[in-house]
Amino acid sequence: MTKLTVIHMDQGDRLLLYQLFWHYYRGDLMKLTTIDWANLAELLRTMTVLCESEFGNQAITKFDEVSEETLESFVFDYNRLFVGPNRLHASPYESTYSNFEGTIMQQETIKVRNFYHYEGLQVADEGQYPDDHIQYELEFICYLLNQNEKGPDLKLFLENHFFKWVDKHCERIEEHSQNQLTLAFAYLLKEFLQLEKIIIEGGEPNVN
Amino acid sequence: MAKKLGFLVNIERCIGCHACEISCKSFYQLEPNMRRRRVQELPEDVVGTPVRAFVSTACNHCDDPACKKACPVGAYTKREDGIVVHNQDLCIGCQMCGKACPYSVPMFNPVKKKMDKCSMCYDRLDVGQLPICVEKCPLEAIQIVDYNEVQPANAVSEIPTFADTSITHPTTHFILHKPGKQSRRF
Amino acid sequence: MLTENFSRRTFLKGSASLSALLGLGVATSQAPKGLIPKAQAKSNGKVEQFYNACPRNCYDTCSIVTTVEDGRITFITGNEKNTYTKGRLCVKGNTYPRVVYSPDRIKYPMRQKGRGSGNWERISWDEAYTIIAKKILAIKKEYGSTLPICLNKYSGNFNILNYATEGMLSSIGYTTRAQGTPCDPAGSDAQGFDMGAPYNNDPEQFLDADYIILWGANPAWTSAHSMYFIEQAKERGTKLVVIDPLITQTASKADEYIQVKASTDGALALGMIRYILDHQLYDKNWVSQNSIGFNEFFSYVKKNITVEWAAEKTGVPKPVIERIAREYATAKPANIWIGFGMQRHVNGGAMVRAIDALAAITGNIGKKGGGVNYIGEETWGFNYSTMGFGAPEGSGGEADRYVNMNNFGAQVLDANDPPIKMMWIACRNPMAQDPEPTVVKKAFDQMDLIVTADLYMNKTVEYSDIVLPVTTPFESVGVNVSYWHYWMNVNEQAIKPLYETKSDLEIAMGLSKKLNQLKPGSCTFPVTGDPLDWVEKEMNDDIKALFNVKSWDDLRKNGGTAKANESITVAWKDLKFRTPSGKYEFYSKTAAEYGHHPLPIFTEEYKAPKEYPIRCMSPHWKFGIHSQFQHQDWLMAIQAHPFLEIHPDLAKKKSIRDQDMVKIINETGYMTLPAKITKMVPADTVVMYEGWWKGVNYTENFTVKALQEDMGEHLKGQRGIAFHDNFVNIEKA
Questions:
Q1: Residue C550 CB burial class (10 angstroms; 0-12, 13-18, ≥19)
Q2: Whose CA is closest to C124, among C33, C27, C30?
Q3: Which partners does chain B have (≥3 C-beta pairs < 8 Å)?
Q4: What is the rounded distance in angstroms from the CA atom of residue A2 to the CA atom of residue C109?
Q5: CB C58 within 8 A of CB C183
C-alpha cells in the first residue's frame, strides 16, 4: 500500500465515504448506470489523498471503466459475497470474523448492540437482523462522526469493532470477487480504512 | 478429609456419540475447534472381538498436574477437592502447559491467544450442579467420583491409548467394555 | 432513518453531494430499517427459557429447553420433565445453536437467473408471491387444472403446522403429489397385513423386557435415548441380542451379536420359528385365541423350512439359530425392535411379516415390555386443520394425482395429460436424497418453475428458480409427537425469526393472499391468522384426553411436554387387532389382494449382478438425519468428509489401503471417496453412510437405483425403495 506522508481528509470527505459504503451495503447502489459510476469516480477524484493511493486509484479507475457486462453481473456477485442464498464468501457480519466458522449473533454482536444502546440507539428490528451487520456499523459511525462531541466514542467504536474486522472482510472480497465493482469497493474500503486508521490513531499507515 | 474428585468414564456405556463434547462446547460457547472434552475411537480389536469402541476424556485433574508445574505465571491451581483450575486472566498463551501435559489437554485458543481446558465445571459443582458433560451424556456414561470416598470395583486407571499414568497420576478412571459373544460370517 | 435526518439537518458536503449525485432514495432499498432511538423499556441481561420440540424425522423427537439471553439463544438442551428425553439431547440436537446462527442460512427470498447458474438476485416476499401466484394462475388457465403443479414435501420438519404446505396446495385445486415414503413402507404394510397397523410399545418399556432383539436397528446412532433404556435393561440382566449384517455401534454393545447375511433375515426368523414349533415352545393359547391362519402357516413352515436351510441361507450357524430361538421363546416378555434399514430390500415386507410371526407364535404381542416394535402413529390424531379447506370452485380435475416419491424423477417425466410444469419443494432435498439423481435432474429440467423452501443451500436449492427462507423450530410455534415414543412436545417461539424467514404456515397464508388479490376465489387457504391460534386448533378432545392437557397453552405453561396415558402405551394390549378378522392374521386376505402370498413365507433376496458383486449399504450416520445436521461446523470439526468402510479381506483383494481413494461404480453412477478399512463390515459389503456433506459433490444415492421394495401400497400408497440392494464394484482410484 502506498506510503502517505501528508494525510488530509476533511470531515465531509470522510462522511461521504462512510455514507457511500453505507449505501453500498444497504444495497442502494445496485441499479446505477455507467454514467452514475463515472460521476462517482469524478467525485472521488476530488479527494487527492485517495487518488494518490494505490488501491484508491485502482478503485476509482474501475468505477470510471464500468462496462455493461460488469453491471449485469454486479448484483449476482454482490449476493454471492454478502447476501446468499449460498454460503457467504465475504460475510458482512462482524462476529463472523471473531470465530472461525463465522457464526452470527455471538457475544461480539451483543457488544456492538450494547454500544448502540449506550448512544441511545438500537437496530429497528433488533433480534431479527444481527446488530453487527456492516450496514448498521456504518450508519452508527456516520451518526457519531456527524457530532463533534462524539469523537472519543467514535474512536472507541472504530478501534474495538470496525477496524478489527473490515480488513479481513476486504481480503475475502478480493479473494472471491468475480466482478470489477465488488472488487473496486473492496479496494476503496481497504484504502479508506488505512487512512481512517491514521486519522484516528495518528500513526503511520501500514506499508505493504 | 479433602475430596479427590475425578471423572469415571463408562466405556461399556459410551456409544461414541460426542454429545458430551458438543454439549460442553455449546454451554461454554466455544470455538468449533476448541474441545474441553474429546471422544476418541479405540482400536477396533481393543477387547479381542471387533467392536466400535470409544473413550471420552477431558482434563484428568491429575494429582501431580504437569500443566501447573510448567506454567511460568502461576495460572494453574489445584483446588482442595482435586480440580485443576486454569485462570485464563493470568494466562499469557505461552503453551508450555499444553506441551507438558502427557494427555495434551490444554489447547491454545488462537482467537483469545490463551490456553483453554476443562474446569470440571467447578462453578456448577460449587452450587450443587453436575458438570455439563455428566449431566448431558445421553447414556449417563460419565460420572464424578470422590476417589477418597469410593473406589468403584470395576474401574481401572489405564486404558490403551492413554499415556503412562505414573507421570502425573490422573484421577480419571474407566469402566472397560465387556466383549459380547459374536457369531460373524467374516 | 438517522442518517437521513442528520444529513438534512447538517448539510455536510458528503451526504448532500452523494445523494444528489446518485439520486439515492432510501425508500427504494430492500434493506431493513436502520438504527432508531432506543426504546425506553429496553433492559439488557434478560434471561428467558422456552420449550421447543425437535421436529426432525427421528424416533426420539425430543422436548427441548432453550435459554435465550437478550433475544439471543445461548444454550439448547433437553427437557428434564420428559422422561424419555431426560434433559439430554443427542449430539445433533446439541448443535442447534449453530443451526440457527449459521452464516450459511438462507436469509431472503431469492430468484436464480438461469437454473444452476449460481446467479441469484434478491426479491421481496411480495415479488416472490407474485411470481409464484401468476405462474399458478397461468398453469390453471392453460391446462384447465392445477395438476401440472407438483408438491414434493416430506420429513424435514414434522411440526403439525407444517402440513400447511399440503393444505395450501390443496387450496388451489387438484395437484400432483409425491406420494409414499422412503422410510418404512414395506415394513408398515407387513404389520398392516398381520395386525392391521404398525403399532409399537413405549420404548421406555425396554426396562420391562427380559430379552431384547434389535433386528437391523442401530439406536446407538439413530435413537440415543432408546439406547439409554436398553443399556439400563442390560445392566439389570436383560440379554441384548443384535442381528445385523454390520457390526454397528449398537451391535458393539450386544451381549450377543449375530451377523446375518443381508436381506436373509426372513429366513432366520422362519428357521427360528421351525425350531420353536418343533420343540413346542410356542404359545398355543395365544395363537388359538388371537390369530387366524396359524395352521396354514404351521404347515407351510413344516413343509418348506428347516433350521439347516436357514443356517445355509443366512450364514448363521445352526446351533446359534437354535439357541437364540429357544432363548427368545422362553424369555417373558421378549422384545423385538425391527429397524427401518432391515426392510429396505426387495423382500423387506416379507421379512418383517416373518419376524412378526415369530413374535406372535411366542405370545409376545400385546405384552408390556414385549412386542414386535417397528413404528407407531397412535399419538398423531391432531385436527390437521391446515389441510381441510379443499379445492376452490371451478377447479379442473377430479382428484390429486400421485407420483411415487421413491421414483420421483422417472414418474414426473412419465406424467402426461397434463405434464408437470411446476414444483414446490419443502422439507425435502430430493436432488441429494433420491435414488438416481441424474433422472431427478432431468425431471427438474422439464419444469417452468421450481420453488424450494429451505434453511440452507443444498443440491435441490442449487437447482431451483426461487428459494424461500424458512424458520428454524426456535423461530415459530408448533406441536410435535413421535412415531416411536409416547410424548407430545410443545414448540414455542423462542426468538424472532432471523432475517426475512417465514414458517411454512406463514408462507401458505402469504401465497393465498396474493392469489386472491390477483384472482379472487382462486385459493381457499386463509390469508391471515395467528400461528398461536392455528396450533391451538390442532388440539381436539381426543388429543387433550389422551395427554391429559387442557390446551396447547396450558401445556406450554406446564412443562411443555406430556405423555399419553397408559391405555395406549402397550401395543395391542386388548388383543383387538385392526385386521378384517380382528385377529392376528398369519393368513392375510388383504395381503393377497395386494398380490402377495397370504402367509408370511420366505421370499428370495435380490441377487447381485455378475459385474457388480459387492453390496453397498447406506445406513444412517450418527452426525446426520438424511441431509440435515452433518454440515454444521461443530460436526464438521469431528468428521468433515464421507468415507467408504471396507473389510480388510476385500481391501486386500483390491489392493486398497486405509485412506486410499476408492472408485465405487455401477450402471447408475460412480463416485470416488476415501477408504476406511474396518472389520465392522462383512467382506462382501461396503458401507457409505447416508447424508449430505457440505462441499462434496456426490451422495450415496449416485449408485442407488429406484429398485422397489415388495410392499408399501397398502398403507403408504406406494412401495418403498430397496436402498440396501445396491450392488457395485470398487477399485483403487
A1: exposed
A2: C30
A3: A, C
A4: 42
A5: no
What average pLDDT does this structure show over C625-629? 93
Distance CA A63, CA A182 (A): 10
Distances in Å between the alpha carbon of B104 and those of B20, B100, B117, B163, B168?
18, 8, 10, 10, 12
B183 and C258 within 8 Å at the Cβ level: the answer is yes
Q: Report which DSSP code applies to C105.
A: B
Beta-carbon separation of A101 and B32 below 8 A: yes
User: Which residues 266-325 of C have a C-beta within 8 angstroms of B?
Assistant: 315-317, 320
Q: Measure A117 CA to nearest chain C CA, in Å.
A: 6
Upper half-sphere CA count for residue C639 (Cβ side, 13 Å): 22
Separation CA A104–CA A85 (nearest Å) = 15
B33: chain C residues, CB-CB within 8 Å: 637
Domains and CATH numbers, chain B: 6-175 (3.30.70.20)
Helix (H, G, I), strand (E, B) or coil at B95: coil
Nearest beta carbon to residue C14 from set A13, A26, A106: A13
Which domains does chain A show, CATH number per domain? 11-201 (1.10.3480.10)
Task: Examine the pLDDT at A206 and tell me if it is beyond 50.
Answer: no
For the stretch C64-118, pLDDT in tens is 999 999 899 999 999 999 999 999 999 999 999 999 999 889 999 999 999 999 9
pLDDT in tens, A51-65: 899 999 999 999 999
Q: How many residues does chain C have?
A: 733
Q: Contact, C49 vs C490, CB < 8 A?
A: no
More confident residue, A49 or B10: B10
Nearest of B53, B57, B8, B25 to residue B178 by alpha carbon: B53
The rounded distance, in Å, linking the Cα atoms of C521 and C77 is: 45
Instruction: Cell numbers for C545, please give them.
Output: 384426553
Please report the pLDDT score of residue C30 as a whole number: 66
Q: Among all chains, which residue has been given the C-alpha cell 419443502? A: C426
Residue C11 CA: distances (Å) to CA of A148, A192, B71: 15, 22, 59
| Model confidence pLDDT, tens digit, residues C416-447 | 999 999 999 999 999 999 999 999 999 999 99
Query: Which chain C residues are within 8 Å of B182, Cβ to Cβ?
Result: 247, 256-257, 259
Asked if the Cβ–Cβ distance from C72 to A17 is below 8 Å, we say no
pLDDT tens readout for residues B18-34: 999 999 999 998 877 88
Q: Residue B28 has which C-alpha cell? A: 461454554
**Cell 441469484 identifies what position?**
C120
For residue A109, the chain C residue with the least C-alpha distance is C72
pLDDT digit string, tens, across residues C450-504:
999 999 999 999 999 999 999 999 999 999 999 999 999 999 999 999 999 999 9
Contact assessment for residue B96 and residue B108, using Cβ atoms and an 8 Å cutoff: no
The residue with cell 439520486 is: C23
Q: Do B183 and C249 touch (CB under 8 A)?
A: no
Contact status of C225 with chain B (Cβ, < 8 Å): yes
Q: Given CB atoms, is A102 within the 8 Å cutoff of chain B?
A: no
What domains can you pick out in chain C, each with its CATH number? 1-37 (no CATH), 201-250+261-374+574-593 (3.40.228.10), 614-732 (2.40.40.20)
The whole-number pLDDT of residue C352 equals 98
Q: Which chains does chain A touch, 3 or more C-beta pairs < 8 A?
A: B, C
Task: Give CA–CA dist A105/C474, Å, rounded.
Answer: 14
Query: Diameter of chain A by CA atoms?
Result: 45
C187 and C440 Cβ atoms separated by less than 8 Å:
no
Strands B76-78 and B54-57: unpaired
Q: Are C621 and C222 in contact (CB under 8 A)?
A: no
Chain A, 102-131: which have a CB under 8 Å from a chain C CB?
102-106, 109-110, 113-114, 116-117, 120-130
